Amino acid sequence: MPAVLTFLPLAILIIAVPGPSVLFAVGQSLANGRRAALLSVLGNGLGVAVQGVAVSLGLGALLAAVSGSLLVLRVLGGLYIVYLGIQAWRGAGTEQSAPAPARGTSHLLGRGFLVGLSNPKTFIFLSAFLPQFVTRASEATLQMLVLAAAFAALAIAGDSLWALGAAQARAWFGGDAHRLVQLRRTGAVMLVGLGIFTLASGADSSP
Hints:
Blueprint: H1 2-16, H2 20-32, H3 34-56, H4 59-65, H5 69-91, H6 105-117, H7 120-129, H8 140-173, H9 177-200
Helix pairs in contact: 1-8, 2-3, 2-5, 2-8, 2-9, 3-6, 3-7, 3-8, 5-6, 5-9
């Protein structure tokens, strides 16, 4: 328990600093609305949770040891985010007179899940961060699973706040069709920029 109490405030501080997941949440909110953003945030958090499980079972270190594996993850993740941004841009001007059909819940969750799962920086970060709070070697896997679940839950909560804030701004400034299109395109540009940043950045940078 003391390890968890030490871990939680540090995790909150780390999550509070805006990073790629925040840009993803805000971009989704501006481009696709609150529901899409919150479901994508939940999916992203589930992807982080799966990474936490992998790290707890020792798979994170194994993946890092396989030459080129993290690079493949980074490229696939970056390309997917660019694709989402392009799709958002293409659809930005199609809803001026009527709302587009809502995306299915599973589609939106899956989209966020793929983004979260394919981020190699989270693998590296969790691999370095979680073991520091293990107090008993015999219970290392269980303790790391608990810490990873707590981190994913906090990440979902933090990113959801950003998504809700961006959705509120979208509602305030999107009162007419022209401004709404511009807001959607802003979100699309943010997603494309995040994808390009992911492709260009090294896997050893901060999460």
